[in-house]
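step: validate -> pass
step: tokenize input -> pass
step: predict -> running
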Amino acid sequence: MALVRSVATVGGYTMISRVLGFARDILIAATLGAGPVADAFFVAFKLPNFFRRLFAEGAFNAGFVPLFSGLLTTDGRARAVAFAEQALAVLLAALLLFVSLFQIAMPWLMQVLAPGFADDPAKFDLAVLFTRLTFPYLLFISLVSLLGGVLNSLQRFAAVAATPILLNVCLIAAITVGAGFTPTPGHALSWGVAAAGGAQFVWLLLALGREGIAPRLRWPRLTPGVRELLRLMLPAAIGAGVVQINLVVDIILASLLPDGSVSYLFYADRLNQLPIGVVGVAVGTALLPLMSRQVAAGRQADARSGLNRAVELSLLLAVPAAAAFMVVPDALVTTLFQRGAFGAAESRATALALTAYAVGLPAYMLVKVLGPAFFARKDMRTPVITGGISMVVNVILNLILMQFLAHAGLALATALSAWLNVGLLAAILARRGDFRADARLKRACGRLLPATGLLAAGLWGGAHLLAVPLAGGEAWRAGALAALVVGGLALYAAAAALLGVARPADLKALLRRGG
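step: predict -> pass
step: emit ->
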């Protein structure tokens, strides 16, 4: 029950954060649109986030949490906290040096990160300035990662789960209040990012104080514990880097395209990430500990069955979501984003990117499901290799498809390379005998396609019937989109039940097993 409560706590705060995130994106779209200021801000926002995902949340957590938890269990809280203070000292020193160097080198770095901006000096200068303003966020959020690892190890999840909410609140305040006091809304948002990092750091310091922990700032030293932490971080950084480098390549190439291309990809990806975050991450997170126990106990048949059920559940939700994004992308983008500086042309360009991303939506989820099948067997190497191959193919496809489809070509390349990654992972698991589609999965897939076809036809027909309100004012668009969503859900549920895609008893069993 403690696990269920913890998952509910994290899930509840995550949902609040996602709702606020959409509100933030709607406000940014209405204020900035998809012009040069928006492109400059999104590049400035992505760069510190790239390093955050690569080192702070990915590699650092992978190394720090097991070591801290182990010391907490074997040597007690005082020894574990001392190790956290040693790690904090080294991390802070490294971050201060890293951030300072990047602040100095930002003009040269921007020529690599967004070479297309160099043709527009005003846009280039904005990108440099905005990135210098946002980059301190990396320092704060990396320290937040350490403090969050301590709290999570102490089974205190709420404060950590609430930290993304602070980012969204700060950015909403920046765009609604701060924009009136800065040269452009992009300046206000950039200051808001840095302020959010500081707010998150103070928030977790207070949370640690409530647990009776007040980390002391020590002189940085490479103690045996810190050296072990650095050793564990290296493979995790390489693994995380494969995915993150793909994102940076997309930014570099998008900067070479016309104004707004970076923004179109950002807005489309925000919509595409919603089902991935809610479904794909949740299934993968729940699957890893379950499969790890099964493999450790020698219950290989159970592990294979569990993987089949996870694939089944992911496809049951991912395929109809992808169909909806491909059939009615204009209705979604127009209703959510088209207002203020974000006009009809921006909506259409973003809808094209969303359609392309949606081609790979099931693949994005399946990567998160198939990965744990390797991690449970302590094989960290294979997913890195397949990810590296997919990354190279993604770059090649980017260079080809952007010539014909512009920014949508970059999104389509990402989708196709994700399918390649899934194919490689599935083939390797099948060759090892760790995955084979069972009769139930085959039956579900065979019936899922016609059910999704009915959904697509219903959405297409509904969009045509509601064409007038979908092209009307904001209230009419919102009502029409709500009708499409509710109607689509009801139609898919009815089709899935009629065709026997998933029986209620099967879903209940999956939920019980997950709990």
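step: describe -> Residues 163 and 270 are 19 Å apart (CA to CA).
step: cleanup -> pass
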